[in-house]
Predict the structure.
Amino acid sequence: MSTTFGELFGAAAVAVYAAPGRVNLIGEYTDLNDSFVLPFATAEVTTVEVRRRTDRIWKMASDGVGGGSVLTHDLDTDGLPPGWGAYPVAVARALENAGHRVGGLDLLVRSDVPTGAGLSSSAALECAVGLALCDQFGVDLQPMELAVLAREAENRYVGVPCGIMDQAASLCCEQGHAMLLDTRSLEIRQLPLALEGSGLALLLVDTRVKHALVSSAYANRRHAFAEAARRLGVRTLREAIEAGIGIDALAGDDELYRRARHVVSEHNRVLEAAQALASGDERALGALLSASHASLRDDLEVSCAELDLAVDAAMAAGALGARLTGAGFGGSAIALVEAGRAGEVAAAVADAFSSRRLTAPSLRRVAASSGARRVR
Ligand code: ADP
Ligand code: MG
């Protein structure tokens, strides 16, 4: 959509805010167990151009969805607009529900964060809107406080039961760093992710597939984690890990045992990966990424043929490690490669897909970029 804000709304925007997508380096499904995750922000961002209104009406358009047509919503009516408009309005509702009064807005969304690719375009949209609302209506919140409300917007109003990782990453990540996030205490630690300096590159393979299974499987795994914790007599699997309670008591139920084993092993891998980054040993990430993928594939069973193919082809072409990232069942994989071999590995992955007559994946290098900010 090349339409400008002025053409849509009759006056120029007064401010522009940007919020990135995120790639989770490691720590998959751990946030559902109060444990650690290690995401970084993508260079791809969702921007919102805004102009405050004097009433309580929202007029919204997006260049990515709905052909740029303007949606109208009155903040004083119940309910949410249909489709994508639910996300921005949900953020306003979450803020107001927490006692932060906002108001009407003209809003134009532009984004280069692909939707449904495992990069969390939904959080990028929520966080860009959240930042705009705080700045425009004088709401004084720390980035992590806003992340909590943006998550609540998605959980409670949009109805997607995601963890805190995506919103926290979009708002709190820093350029050149991965962010170790304790999803229980919400403490963060910025760890240098300077791949280029180490002669490495991270390749993102967006398989462009999204299997219908993802939301039901997500709910099913959530349930399994809760059940495993219940049987171990703890509130969360994080508690079991820290109390030194092994998961042997679950051995009679093979599936439940493997679900819990993923959480325990992934918890340890995140902490090892953080240690590797803290000591500047990025190459050590390789084996951890591959072990994470094996666990997601075999113990948690959230991979799919396309993700396994991307990982296997990257490894066969000499990647140091690779894994699916995000909730699985499609979306993206990442591969850690020697920078000099990035082209070769990318070509091998593309070949593997084309020789199976699969839709060509989108392949690109990703680097740790800035968190959400006002850009104008
Ligand atoms: P993801 O993994 O990318 O977050 P989700 O299904 O959680 O996938 O969120 C995608 C949804 O978020 C889209 O279907 C749309 O409703 C909304 N969305 C994301 N980006 C945009 C955008 N630029 N404009 C409008 N809506 C968007
Ligand atoms: Mg999402």
Notes: The longest helix spans residues 254-278. The pocket of magnesium ion (ligand 2) is lined by residues 120, 122 (CB under 6 Å).
